[in-house]
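Researcher: Structure for this, please.
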Amino acid sequence: MTNDTLRLTRLHQVALSVTDLDRAIAFYRDKLGAAFTMKFDPPGLAFFDFDGTRLMLDAIAEAAGHASPLYFWVDDIHAAHQELQSRGIQFEQPPHLINRTDEGEEEWMAFFRDPDQNILAIATRRQL
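Model: Predicted structure, token format:
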């Protein structure tokens, strides 16, 4: 992969900090009509699908005082990781498995920060 071929053009996931997970789920699902996909509580996460872009409601970040990360979709996470490193981006850890679904998919992510220390990530899903 060269500098000309990697462009982060698709948001995979946007995270929002919430103070009350159940109240936030009710708002997005019942008031806005968003497609609710799953809840993990603990640790305090819920997910909605907005036409292929996932919204993650995060009660953990609120408690920890973290900002809301952006997750960029990449087709090949290892190649994207290598290319971004070659551009001087320092990752907090290499690409790693985040979740395995019952449908036989794995979700992989690698996290880094922008100049203002906002958390960003590259992410992908692949079939087992």
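Researcher: Any notable elements?
Model: The chain has a mean pLDDT of 89. Strands lie at 11-17, 35-40, 45-50, 53-58, 70-73, 96-100, 105-113, 119-127.
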